[in-house]
Amino acid sequence: MIRIANGSAFWGDSQEAPLELLRGGPLDYLTLDYLAEITMSILQKLKGRDARAGYAHDFVGVIKRGAREIVERGVKVVTNAGGINPVACRDAVAAVLQAAGYGGRIKVGVVTGDDIMPHLDRMLEQGIAFTNMDTGEPLSSVRARVQSANAYFGAFPIADALGRGAAIVITGRCNDAALALGPMLHEFNWKADDWDRISAGTIAGHVIECGAQCTGGNCQADWESIPDFAGIGYPIIEAEPDGTFTITKHAGTGGRVNVASVTEQLLYEIGDPGTYITPDGIADFTTIQLAQQGADRVHFSGIKGRPATDFYKVSISYSAGFKAVGTLVYSWPDAYKKARAADQILRQRFDRLGLKLEAIHSDFVGVDACHGDMSGEPSNDIAEVVLRIGARNMEKAPVERFLKELVPIALNGPPSVTGLSAGRTKVDEIIAYWPALIPKTAVTPHVEVAGA
After folding, report:
1. How many whole angstroms separate alpha carbon 62 and alpha carbon 54?
2. pLDDT tens track for 60-91
3. Which of 153, 206, 233, 378 is least surrounded, with the fewest CB atoms within 10 Å of its CB?
4. Is the pLDDT confidence value at 414 over 70?
5. What is the pLDDT of residues 89-107, one digit of tens each?
6. Do 449 and 109 touch, CB atoms closer than 8 A?
7. Model pTM?
8. Which of 101, 107, 85 is nearest to 169 (CA)?
9. Residue 198: which residues within 8 A CB-CB, separation 6 or more?
10. In which element (H, E) is residue 396 found?
11. What are all long-range contacts of 226-231, with beta carbons under 8 Å and residues at least 24 apart?
């Protein structure tokens, strides 16, 4: 049995969770997930400004603070913090270990090859259309605006790096669940066609990939009774060679691990539960058997899987114009009526100015922002309503003008405006997501392991 914990669900998650996992009890592996689709474009921009950037720098801080536990307790770390620049991330980690007095004590592995941005035009010329999986459009329609392009690798390159002696493995873009599946492949020597066990390891990785979201965080079921949110524990897989596993957390930490909490996470971002496609295989979530095994322990068994496809998914980001959002708070009496009037007045002014915007969207926070028409008729006694109004356009100038027209309504529109944010809001670039497929034969993972 091996213990695999996850201490980060995204870039910006708790800085203390990884350290608490390292210090709170026995662990064999610590995984840290930092990447989302939009994160890749942000990292690409950072690398464009500085060749040494392009990775999740928070990870270097984790290694700096946790170096003693990682080295002396022998906890291996697997992360996708490498982003667009895994090699630079490795170099930064090596420098931190050297400064902490652990230079030469452990090996660091790097998985590269997922960044296909430099090869995109050649691949297009070779006939790989990168057809949008949602719309059916060819990538050529937005090629000039593409900012990043990364293939989702699987768990086998991670297992390869661990097999070469790496104690820290840094990847670029990979399937989120691969961070946990990789150690299982390495420790248990599962074969590439052992579809049931690969499916089980994938599901285990999926359960913990969002951190405390499976230990009671963001859990709708009986949320008010969940103990000690302030000290919530992050999840741990206790994995067995036969593909069964248990989800738990360190003793004495807050939160709760039960069938309800893990079930909510199981349903997160899966689409068809019978066909969860990853680079390593297809997991069948409908075969999962769950059993509560005491406090904060949920056992998984019976999981089945099917063969992997011949494709990697590719995450492509591209510029899709500009947007801005402003808010105006209207107070009682007639808060909702004032907010609706302000919305109509602003739209009329935009028309009179000839302000051409591709889209304008308004929400009335406190009335219908979450549920829309299903909210029903609002009460006249609402104490305050936030008018949140946003606009987007391919050109930046109209969006800037949109923002400037919001501010004056505080004095030349309906009364009782407070909390005006429009004057401090800025125009942001819209980064859109383009999902596509690429034959596995067109791209190859590269694994390098060296002493830190």
Report:
1. 17
2. 999 999 999 999 999 999 999 999 999 999 99
3. 378
4. yes
5. 999 999 999 999 998 899 9
6. yes
7. 0.93
8. 107
9. 181, 185, 190, 280, 281, 283, 305
10. helix 396-406
11. 226/254, 226/255, 226/256, 227/254, 227/255, 227/256, 228/253, 228/254, 228/255, 229/254, 229/255, 230/254
